[in-house]
Amino acid sequence: MTLTVCLFTDSLEPSGVGESMLTLAAELREQYRLCFVCPPGALGNKLLTRAHEMGLVTLGYECRSRQQEAELTEWLRAQGVKIFHCHAGIGWEGHHGIYAASWAHVPFGVRTEHLPDMLTDPLQRRDYKRIVGIIDRVICVSDSAHASFIKAGVPEKKLRLVRNGIARRTVMPDRDGIRARLGLPRTARIVLTVGRMVKQKGYDLLLDAIPAVLAREPKTHFVWVGGGELEVDLQNRAREMGLQNRICFAGLRDDVADLMAAADVFVLPSRFEGLPLAVLEAMAAKLPVVGTRVCGITEAVLDGQTGRLVEPGDVKALAHALLQVLENPELAIRWGAAGRWRVQQEFSAARMGRETASIYEALAQPERAGAFTPEEIKPKLKELSMVKETTLTTSTPQPALIHAAASENSAKIRGKLT
């Protein structure tokens, strides 16, 4: 019997989360019938299109209210979903989707946490505890994240570790072509950063480090790929510092692999992380990586072997680390080669797919054997009964937004929702 698995996120900016979901889907699509659900929008629609092209059943839907829960419940029932796999960027995400799956009597619930535990509000803690009571497994993407959820009180029997993985790519470097495309001199040394322009990613710290780098390596140019709430502020600060011609705000792009193949070093000065895909992709592209000693990055980057790690917020150390790479080309080549080997050995998409599938299979064994009974969902329904009269504190109800999903089955259900 082929099980139907729903990969779900309600993140409004599912950048790394969405990429991870699609990478996982590519590894699992031959083994399971897969559904892919995410909110519609500029980024969400691109993810939905790619998922449809992979042969997945797709639904663009924003589930952030009780009414939307009920509508999603109907859709999940119609699809015959057996495993609901929610992907969350932070603890307050995904709750309505998990409740919808439980109301639909989906037998098994899995939740992947793409960041460490960061909840501090008591009401959010309460809501998250209820979610944990409903789902069967909590997957963490790094050792540090796993430890944080143990500390937060998630039962160890529910926790599993599945590190992020990426698919292999072969990209021919086009250093001159990329520099011409970005309007940079042919001799430019490119320091690349890929990530949302939010406080978490530490762009402000990198901006403060740039003058010290340019003082010793004047041919250096910084290319920043991404968008976000701080983009305009960062652009204004760059102009105030006279750096507008040294920082290329490249926006959201589809040619990140080409940029990585043409860059000289990758830097991500994050304040916190889960296990960033951008770092893994940079290492796979044979780029030395300068990062911070935070959750996830420390598990990918080996200090002094595949790159350099500095303390988060240490601008002076960040500049020094970048200069160490830029001023030592042979060291950069050695670190880059070691990084690629490490990704191939430890962070492959195939390994991530196998480990996730093993979690599914362990849960679904009674279902496959026909031994699963409604009695097993009673503990989940008990948790749900506690939520009926309680307003979730972690989301704001919004009108239902239905994306023009491309699959025939989704279209039938969507007709009922609109």
Q: How would you characterize the overall build of this protein?
A:
The protein is of the alpha/beta class and 418 residues long. The protein has a 7-stranded parallel beta sheet with strand order 3-2-1-4-5-6-7, sandwiched between helices. Helix 2 links the parallel strand 2 and strand 3. Helix 8 crosses helix 13 and helix 11 crosses helix 14. The C terminus is likely disordered.
Quickly list its features.
about 425 residues; alpha/beta; six-stranded parallel β-sheet; 17 helices; 13 strands; about 15% strand; disordered C terminus
SS element count, helices:
17
Would you list the SSEs in sequence order as H and E? EHEHEHEHEHEHEHEHEHEHEHEHEHHHHH
Q: Rg, please?
A: 22 Å
The number of E-state strands comes to: 13
